[in-house]
UniProtKB/TrEMBL annotation:
<dbReference type="Pfam" id="PF11706">
    <property type="entry name" value="zf-CGNR"/>
</dbReference>
<protein>
    <submittedName>
        <fullName>CGNR zinc finger domain-containing protein</fullName>
    </submittedName>
</protein>
<dbReference type="InterPro" id="IPR010852">
    <property type="entry name" value="ABATE"/>
</dbReference>
<dbReference type="Pfam" id="PF07336">
    <property type="entry name" value="ABATE"/>
</dbReference>
<feature type="domain" description="Zinc finger CGNR">
    <location>
        <begin position="160"/>
        <end position="200"/>
    </location>
</feature>
<dbReference type="InterPro" id="IPR023286">
    <property type="entry name" value="ABATE_dom_sf"/>
</dbReference>
<dbReference type="InterPro" id="IPR021005">
    <property type="entry name" value="Znf_CGNR"/>
</dbReference>
Length: 214
C-alpha cells in the first residue's frame, strides 16, 4: 500500500529517505498522462497536513495553518499552486541536473526560505535553522524548498532514483546502488506479476496469425 491515513486524509507513505524528496511523491505517475486522480495535495488543508506528516512543520503550526487557510481561501490556493510548481521543478532538478530553468525556480524559493530562517537552540545547546511560525500560508512551500536545498548541497543528491513502476515514478535515495523500486512489496511485485502474465500470454506465430503458447 502506498498510503497511510493522517488526520482523516490519505497521505503518501514516507519512503524517499529525505524530506527534501517527499514533496515529489505527492504526485503519482510522473511519466503517465496527467490526471487529477494522481494528485495527493488536492487542497491546502491536505498540504498543511502533509507538511506535518513529512516532518517539515510541527503539529501546532499545522493546526494554525489549517485555520488560517479557512480564513483566507484565496491566499491558500495561491500557496498551494506555488507548492505544486515547486514540486514539478524539484522533480526535474533531481532527475535532470542540467535543467537550469528548474534549478533557478528551486533556488529562488530556497533563497527566500534561507532569508526567513532564524537560528534557534534548545536545552542541549545544539542550534538549528528554523522557519518562524508566523511565516504565513506559504510556510509549507518554504519548508519544502529549504529541505530540498539541503539535499541538493550534499553528495547524496547523486543517489536520487525514480521508481520505474507503472503509475508511479516516486523518488528515493539509493545510497548502495541496489534499490530499484519505491517499495518492492508494491511496485516490485506488480512488475513480477505482469512479467509472469506476459510470459504466459499466447504469442502470434508468423504471418498467418496462428497463436502458440509461450
Amino acid at each position: 500500500m502506498h498510503w497511510v491515513e493522517v488526520d482523516g486524509y490519505a497521505m503518501p507513505v514516507l519512503l524517499a529517505g529525505h524530506p527534501g524528496l517527499e514533496l515529489c511523491n505527492t504526485w503519482a505517475g510522473w511519466a503517465d498522462t496527467p490526471d487529477p486522480r494522481r494528485e495527493w495535495l488536492r487542497d491546502y488543508d491536505r498540504l498543511a497536513v502533509w507538511s506535518g506528516h513529512a516532518g517539515l512543520l510541527s503539529a501546532d503550526t499545522v493546526r494554525r495553518l489549517r485555520a488560517a487557510a479557512r480564513a483566507e481561501p484565496a491566499a491558500a490556493e495561491r500557496a498551494l499552486a506555488e507548492t505544486r510548481s515547486l514540486r514539478a521543478a524539484l522533480h526535474e532538478v533531481f532527475l535532470v541536473p542540467g535543467d537550469t530553468a528548474a534549478f533557478g525556480a528551486v533556488a529562488r524559493l530556497a533563497r527566500e526560505a534561507a532569508a526567513a530562517a532564524t537560528l534557534a537552540t534548545d536545552d542541549t545547546g545544539i542550534a538549528r535553522w528554523t522557519l518562524p511560525d508566523d511565516g504565513g500560508l506559504r510556510l509549507p512551500l518554504l519548508a519544502a524548498a529549504r529541505a530540498a536545498a539541503e539535499l541538493l548541497c550534499t553528495p547524496a543528491r547523486t543517489q536520487v532514483r525514480a521508481c520505474p513502476g507503472d503509475d508511479c515514478g516516486w523518488l528515493f535515495l539509493d545510497p548502495r546502488g541496489r534499490r530499484r523500486w519505491c517499495r518492492m512489496a508494491v511496485c516490485g511485485n506488480r512488475a513480477k506479476v505482469r512479467a509472469y502474465a506476459d510470459r504466459r500470454r499466447p504469442a502470434t506465430d508468423g504471418p498467418t496469425g496462428r497463436r502458440t503458447a509461450t
